[in-house]
Amino acid sequence: MESNVENLESPIKSIWENLDEWGTRLNDWQKYILYYAIHERKLTDKRIDEAYQCFLKQAAIGGDDFDSTTVPSSFGLRNENEASKNTKLNALKNLKNINALPDIPEIKFSNQLTLIYGLNGSGKSSIARLLLSTCFSRVPVDVLSNVYSEEKKVPECDIEVELNGIKTTYKFIPENTKIAELQNIRVFDQNESRVILTKENALGFLPAGFDVFDEMIRVYKIIDNKLTQEISARKPIKSFIDVFQGESEIKTSLLNLTHNSNIEDFRVKIIDIESINAELNSDKQKLIKLQEQSPEMLVQSYKFCIKILGETVDSLKIKYKTLNTNSCTSYKELLNKLKEKLRAKDSEKFPSQDDSVTSPVRMDSEEWVDFIKSSQKFAKLENPSYPQITDDCILCHQPLTIPSVSLIKRFWGFVNSEVRTEVEKLNAEIDKILLEVKETNFDIFGQDSNKKMTLDKYCSIASVYIDTLVAELNTRRNILVLYLSGTNNVNFPENEFDFHDTEKSLIISEIEKSIEALNLNGVNLEIEKLSRNIKKNEHLILLNNFITQVDDYISSLQWLNRANTALSELITTSISKKAKDLYKKTITDVYKSCLDNESKILDFRLPYELKDRVKEGRSTRIFTIKDNFKPEQIFSEGEQRVLAFADFLTETNISNNVSSIILDDPVVSYDHLRKMKIAERILTEASKRQVIVFTHDIVFLYKLKKLSENMNIKISTHWLHKPEPTEIKFEKDNYPKSQTETFGYIENKLNHLIKHKSEYTDNNEFIQQLRHCADMLRGFIENFVITTLFNGVINRWDEVIKMTKLPNVILNEDLYIDVNKLYNDLCRVINSHDHSDDYEPILPSIETIQVLVDRTKELIQNASEFKNAK
Questions:
Q1: What does the buried/exposed string (b/e) look like for 364-375 if buried means 16 or more CB atoms within 10 Å of the residue's CB?
Q2: Which residue, 715, 717, 712, 749, is CA-closest to 736?
Q3: Bridge partner residues of 625 (DSSP)
Q4: Are the CB atoms for 155 and 172 separated by under 8 Å?
Q5: Sheet holding 618-624: strands in order across?
Q6: What is the per-residue pLDDT for 257?
Q7: pLDDT digits (tens, 9 = 90+) for 11-40
Q8: pTM for this one?
């Protein structure tokens, strides 16, 4: 931020550089808010929603569609011009019904200095109150209609404003007085002074860039509200718990679900729902039996179950011998041997009569081999020595030739070879094994077996265990049958079969515990145990049905936990702290230095302390004195006002947001020396900005007018006065002219009265105007004495005696006698003078006033001649 105060060092880093450095350490959603608070000042609803989605995504509670690439990595300067709005008051128009003021068509304001003068009760404060209510002021005021009037009319006024060169008129509305466009016009009055000194109050301006913190806090609160509403809307309801009637460890676990609960801990409990169902059915049957039978009968039934279980498993193990690993290995070796012999058989060369002749018949096919073997059997029936040369062919009965005999013997030798004999033997052996394996039956008892029914009734778990073993053994047998049958792509059973002996032992142990419980405690404890186990398994089955709802509930709890954790990130303390740190770096030191400088300019040298703090991004401060005293406890009223005015000027000059200031009676309680300093300081401000001053102090008024002439400041002065006790008169561009009236003006005034005398229907009013001319003439004589006779050695309301002008003082007794006599004659014709007995008042006439004017003219001429002669 740039300071308007000279001789103060600028901060090392600007607010924008500090914000950029801070922003790089923020989370993505905070960066998003900061960036648009800098560049757009106020985030739109769309931007806020995007920031919220980014916040949800970072907290892992939503925002899946937010594009993280839109988050800026740097922040830069604000794009738009940071210069303050140049707001000036052009005029107040059509003032009506404002307190006891007359209706005033227009009050114009200078672009530099405007003075509005009026004695107490003249109506000056009514206009000041109008501006107090519409411009920036820490103390609200009301604009009233005339309280003395029987008819209460609504106050009216048009306020013409020039904003950056564009004129706009605003209608004053009593119900909503603050006009946004006038808030960079600041007002200082007694109430403002009191608030500055006695209360902890915020700065009257927001330093450039610090609106970022206000906006961030605003957006944080909106996001906080959004998330709070979403948390309320997404509060999970554990509706599924109502279906879990009764008590169990499962229900207890569901009742105690938290965000730390793991759904997998519940899934693992229901991984084998068939076994749970089987156990539930078994326990229910047991319970029925417990409720129906005596303990002794149940013990016998349980013992019988143990016996059945042991005998059945032993029987299955005996039958399993045909399928055990040793047997399977021998089967595999036998099959491998058969394959080897078959390869050897296939490699044997088929005998033929002539190798060069290719037979159209495949003579080495199995059908042909069978044919040769059959023919051999048939031939042996005819003749055991067949074939001989003397034999006939058994098919065609033609005599055999020597080659035919030889060929037949060779055929029979081929089909009766050793390899083929071994192949047939191996095939026969494998067929026998295959038959044996197929006939291996593991179904020890059918569903109607008494043993099976007993297990189902008293120990269904044991029944399920047996059924599982039988099913697995049958599967192993079927695989082996396929393998022995020559089916390809069959996984040969390499490993030994697992009879789950540990599970069998556990089942037997459970049965024995039941027996022991029956023997020791009777049936009631067993019933209680079974009832608990039944309820647990029922709840497990219900859990299987509602596992999705349980998972959703845990997920909701986890979301809520993350959401509530995320809410803590929306606390604005960190923003206020950063605002305070940056305020200290960029504002506080500059502000205090500026305030010290203003205090010195206004000659305020008493000790004070300015304590400031930042809350929710806004700076507040309060004045104290040593040992925590308040200013009003130590300082005089004048000292308090000086300090408050110095603070007001500091705010005005350090802010880039103040374009005009309004001062209502700024020199109340000041001595004449302090008034001069205040006047000089006001004129310095008027050289930079529009200044409007309300005052009832005529000395202060003329000091301002004189200084403005010396400094070439454009000034506009308006006068409110009461010519009659019940009348208020507003004179635009006028002021009470006492010693400053020129003689030419008075002559023109008299000539105007003479010319327009016939227009005055009321003689009293005409007499008043003549007396006013005499009054102005008297004022001129007073000024003549000060400026001409005494050469301005001392002026009215001046505390300085100009010693250098003493040599040119006119010392002439005749002139002094003429001035004294003229002054006394003037006093006889004005109302405001207390007449002595020696000077009877006279009724003024045109002739009387004309004589007085001529005598004054002669006096001026004589003084000039004497001065020239000297």
A1: beeebbeebeeb
A2: 717
A3: 629
A4: yes
A5: 201-202, 618-624, 609-615
A6: 93
A7: 456 778 888 889 899 999 999 999 999 888
A8: 0.52
